[in-house]
Specification:
Layout: H1 8-21, E1 30-31, H2 33-40, H3 44-56, E2 60-63, E3 67-70, H4 75-96, H5 102-120, H6 127-146, H7 151-171, H8 175-193, H9 197-216
Helix pairs in contact: 1-3, 4-6, 4-7, 4-9, 5-6, 5-8, 8-9
Length: 218
């Protein structure tokens, strides 16, 4: 594989991250230096750097005398993940409500709802359109973090969101889940637009609870 030597570890990290999030590398898979060196045709140093970044992001785990494995999540792990993500997303809404530029938040939310609404009105989505939908759906949540004004909250959410994305990448491809997600996003936006910030936060927690139900089917 032809990689730019100046950014080897970054490129390897991005490739492996994409493979894990899309489950081309499945949950629980063991990652060995030998196999990765053969794949990327590089020394162990950039691979170790890439694996360290993946570990920091919560996508792989180090085990003494065993090596590195992609994370493995059971049903209890999923429940904790989605419950806590719901708490964090709800908190980001409450924090964002104190931002002085509510007009900017409202504009971004409105544009996001309009964009996702246009996509799901189509009878059948191409692969590119599905990817656009998933990115826009995820972006709806991130808007609140952009304006929450709390880097620790944002940092905690970033680590968990990577794990959550493994499952959302699967169930967000389905038309029925897309429709429900869109309707719930719109309800959250409408509550926020009407300055019912507590209501928007409660709807966000409910939204993550419903997303958990989809994740359990993956």
């Amino acid at each position: 594989m032809d990689l730019n030597k100046n950014t080897l570890s970054t490129q390897i990290y991005q490739i492996l991250r994409s493979d894990i999030l899309s489950q081309r590398i499945p949950l629980g898979e063991k990652l060995t230096l030998k196999t990765l060196q053969e794949r990327f045709q590089v020394s162990s140093t950039p691979i170790r750097d890439a694996l360290t970044r993946l570990n920091e992001e919560g996508l792989v785990e180090y085990y003494s005398n065993i090596g590195v494995n992609v994370i493995s999540l059971n049903e209890r792990d999923l429940e904790e993940l989605y419950q806590f993500m719901g708490d964090l997303d709800s908190l980001s809404i409450r924090y964002a409500s104190g931002h002085p530029r509510q007009d900017k938040i409202q504009k971004e939310l409105e544009d996001n709802i309009a964009r996702t609404g246009i996509i799901i009105k189509k009878q059948a989505l191409s692969k590119a359109e599905v990817n656009q939908w998933i990115a826009a759906s995820d972006r709806f949540h991130l808007i609140f973090y952009d304006y929450c004004g709390n880097s620790r909250l944002t940092g905690a959410a970033e680590r968990l969101r990577s794990q959550l994305t493994i499952f959302s990448n699967s169930y967000e491809k389905e038309p029925l889940s897309q429709k429900q997600i869109f309707e719930e996003h719109r309800a959250i936006w409408e509550a926020y637009r009407n300055k019912d910030y507590s209501g928007a936060a409660s709807l966000m927690k409910l939204h993550l609870k419903h997303s958990l139900d989809y994740a359990k089917l993956c």
